[in-house]
Structure formats: C-alpha cells, structure tokens
Amino acid sequence: MTTIRKAVITAFGDPSNVSVVTATLPPPPPQQAQIRVLYSGFSGSDINMRLGRYPFQKKAPLTPGYCLVGTIAANGPRCSKFSPGDVVVCMSVYDAQSTLINMPEKHLISVPDGFDAQKACALVLDWNTAYGMVFRSANVSAGQKVFIHGCSGAVGYALLALCKLRGADVYGTCSERNFDTIRRLGATPFSYRDKAWIGEMQKLGGADVVFDALGFESWDESYSILSPTGKLLGYGGNLKTLTGEPAGSVVWPTLKLLGRNLMFWSGKRTTFYYIERSHWTFEPDLKALFELVGQGKAEVVVKKIWALEDVREAHLGFNSVEGIGSFLIKVADGDE
C-alpha cells in the first residue's frame, strides 16, 4: 500500500463538502497501471458531481477528476504496453484528483515526446469532446454559420477554435468581459445575460449548427435559431447549475430534444452528444488533436490552475474566473 493525497467529495452540496485527505492505494491489479498524476482536468462535471447532479454518477463519498496526464509509476500483472516514466493521458471519469491512481491499461494513451503536459490534459476531455462534435457529429464546413453557447468556456473555446479552423463563421454567448478576446479570435460575441442573440441570429437566416451544453429551455431557444436545414447538438444540462436554480431531471428535456426529429417534414435535426472513452473514435480523435496542436494549427489555452490542496477554491471560483479556456488541478509537486 502506498500513501497518497486525494480530493474527496464527502457529501453532495456546497464546496464545504470538498476536502483533501491522506489515504492509501494498493499496487495495480492485473491489466492496470499505476499513474503518478501531474494534472487533472476540472470542469462542470466536477461541480455537478459535487451537487449530486451528474447523470448516473457514483454516490458520495467519491474522488472527482474526469481526466488526467501523468507518468507510469508501476505496471500490474499482464500489463506491459507502457514503461515506468512514460507520459500518458487518460479519461478516468473519477479519481484523477489523486497523487496516484490505478487505471486499466486499455484506457491509457501515450503523449507525444515533448508535448506540454498541461495542454495534453486539456485535450483529453474539453478538446476531444469539441473535436467529435465539430469533425464528426456536425461535420462543420467552410462558410457555415455556427452558434456556440459559452464560447469562452473550456469546451466552448475549443469548439470556437476548431470551427474557425474549418472555415466557419462563428457566433456565441459569453460574459461581456470576454467580448474583446472572442472578437480577436474571429467570432461574434453576444451577452448570455439577455436574449438579443435569438433575434440577431434569426435576422441572419439562422445558424447551420448550434452547440448547446445548457439544456432545458435553452434547447428550445437554440432550436428557434436554426436555419431551415440546421442541426442542434446538445451536450450537457448545465443551465440549472449555472443559474443556481433547483435541480431538474434532464431526461424529459433530452427526450424532447431528440423527439423533434420526429417532425420528418422539417429539415432541422437534433442530437445529444456524449463522449465515451471506449468508443472507437476516442483515441484517433485525441491523436489528431495532438497533431493539430503540434503543427501549430490549434492553440490550447489554460484559463487557471489550482493546486490539489486548493481544490475547494476551484469549486468556489469556477464561475468567476476571467479569461477563456480550460481549468486544471495541479496534482504533483512538479512536472518531472
């Protein structure tokens, strides 16, 4: 058994239920490797898990951390794909906010030599989610009008960057403090505080693609701005969490979203996108992102990094940090 430090959500509720504790970790079992975690991702999934709102999540207590980058510390029996010291990434879903973690070898992906560890971590969930939607589900093409809710957020910024790379005209909502940055990136920002974007997009003839992680009534509004042949991609139900409203089930809104496809006479389409680490596209998409970033065609931006011991501050400050891009938790003392 090895002594570790890890974040724990002790009960569902406010950030006071998040703490960092000392625990022990057994050696890796067969077909698993033990990873020394350098960085963990931090996103809306952490907030929703803390609130007990994440779909089909574990019961508390639990250790959050949806993705990680780290180095191989040890291999379990029948585990030989990687050697100690190799740098890998993983979509862990849980437990990444821990100094050491045991994970199935099949979920580990090698990081190219010399690739920045922070950027590698951000690619696993935020950018890989965006890539799957832009390049596969929506198949965004040059000249299309694309609308992104929360275009300064982690996935939102990745969507913006990848849609611009495809030659699309990008519009989206964000806070006013990020308007100048969004304009410099070549997109048109609207305030999320009002609904002016609805009328403005309708005046433009509607959006060919809308990316909406808010859910609930936002999906109805997003559908209203679709072009006659537009596609709405829902990929989250974060509206109630962001507004502080009581939690509501996303089941019925999701069924309504997908049910719109029954209007076969309409050229509009809807879908719900969910990233899955076991899907055959996960690793190829991530490797494509490594290549895009390595070639300088995409720039990964990290908005803020908190130390593991300050993870409660991440929960407190999640919605108040200025800037664009991804959040990370620095788990190791150094990047070595």
List the helices and strands and how they pair.
Elements: E1 2-9, E2 18-25, E3 32-42, H1 44-51, E4 68-75, E5 87-90, E6 100-104, E7 108-110, H2 117-137, E8 145-148, H3 154-165, E9 169-174, H4 179-184, E10 188-191, H5 196-203, E11 207-212, H6 217-224, E12 226-234, H7 239-243, H8 251-259, E13 269-272, H9 282-294, E14 302-307, H10 311-317, E15 326-330
Parallel strand pairs: 8-9, 8-11, 9-10, 11-12, 12-13, 14-15
Antiparallel strand pairs: 1-2, 3-4, 3-6, 3-15, 4-5, 5-7
Class derived from helix and strand content = alpha/beta
Total number of β-strand segments? 15
**Proportion in β-strands:** 25-35%
Mean pLDDT: 94
Q: What's the alpha carbon Rg, rounded to whole Å? A: 20 Å
Brief synopsis:
With 336 residues, the protein is of the alpha/beta class. It is built from 10 helices and 15 strands.
